[in-house]
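WARN retry 2 of 3 for item q-0093 after timeout on previous attempt; input resubmitted unchanged.
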Amino acid sequence: MGDSSAVLNDSAGCIKSGGVTTISGPYMSPEQTESFPLKHHIYERHKRISWRCHFCSETDENGGSLRIIITCFFMLTLAVAIALAAQIHFGDYQFTPHGSVATDSIECSTIGTDILKKGGNAVDAAVAATLCLGVVNLHVTGLGGGGFLIVYDHRKKKVLDVIDFRETAPSSLSESLLTSSEGLKAGLLVGVPGLLRGLGLVHSMHGKLAWSEVVRPSARIARNGFPVPTSLISSNIHINPQLNETIRLQNFLKNIEAGGNLTLPKLADSFEMIAANGPDGDTPDNTSDYGLLSSTALWSYPEAVGSHVAAVDLNDLYVSVVSGLNTWFGSQLLTKEGFILNNAMENFNAGSNAFAPGKRPFSLATPIIAIQKEVCGRRLISGVGDAVVGIQLLVEYITREKNISTSMEAPRFRYNPVENQIQYEAWHKPEMSNKTLYQLRLLNYKVSAIREPYQSSNLIEKVGDTLSSRSDSRGGGVASRF
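OK item q-0093 returned
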């Protein structure tokens, strides 16, 4: 909704703990560096094993000291090997992570943390992960869409940027054409995409790695293939088979099955071109913001759809990006380059949201960064395609003081004031209780189930120097930490 965002500021940093001054950065004390857990366990085990070997050699009266020493040496070697294996396998849980990326796809989350490993920052990681989602979640977001993002520097206690790259109305499109019978054609609902321009802008201002380095992972995954997400198949109910323009998309989806390997060579070529030539496509210059939605309009507005990326790096740079095609499959127009176009023009209405060439329609997409005012308090990086979902998430997380997993997976609903209807997620666990549904019906609400797929969100939380991350099971993703 314009540049929809939620930012709460902090007033102090993490300087002292129990009266002891700690070093700034991700570690609370020198002992909590990433090598310490391994060394600590090795040294402790070495002392215990050495003592046992010495004790055994002193009490051996049968000339077997050499065998005992060899055995003890073998035990020590085995203990070191086990410690090393445990450190490699469980590394994320034995020391404070450098950073994390949470998305609706394990592939995209991993691409984000790979960028961090290469020396990139949270902006680089978020851009790379968002582009990746345009491949694996092409029914939700992609090169044909737009969105919003926030960049926040926690050490400086400063919002560095809030960027609105929402789709804009073409300068050649008139309101009379949009509202006529011709306006029913899918092509007239397409706004000028802003995703590449927005991601390119934030990368140019705050990124560290070369543009090609954050784009090429998406080209590789499109060319090599990825598992088809369940939500891509369940979203097919939103396809309108009566629109002739959707034939290409329908043919594309015919033989796709959830879990199968999907390759997108044409989209891979598009990303290779973008990596080589940079992010600039044809974007109108006469764009501007036209106000925000009222609280009443928030609930009556059509459900919005988006895909979210949360990223945090070693230096406490936080990034939240929400991007999308406006609805599931957007305009349902699949381009020959391999991406789907948005239907953002469908969101124009009356008043301050009235159509105008070069104007951005309202959106409910909302990146969220919430910072507790206490010293070393909670910091939450999240975001949603629909602000109604965001409100419920924050209520669960802040007012009820639940952990991120419980807050993330709590039941959600949507209210339709026109029909006095409560729509709930019937196929998500945990589900809304029968008692709650019964009480809603007693209050004369019409209660109905929402069909899958459901809106997802992702979370990264920092408390002091401890980092936790979680991807919403509704989106099918997994967070990655480095």
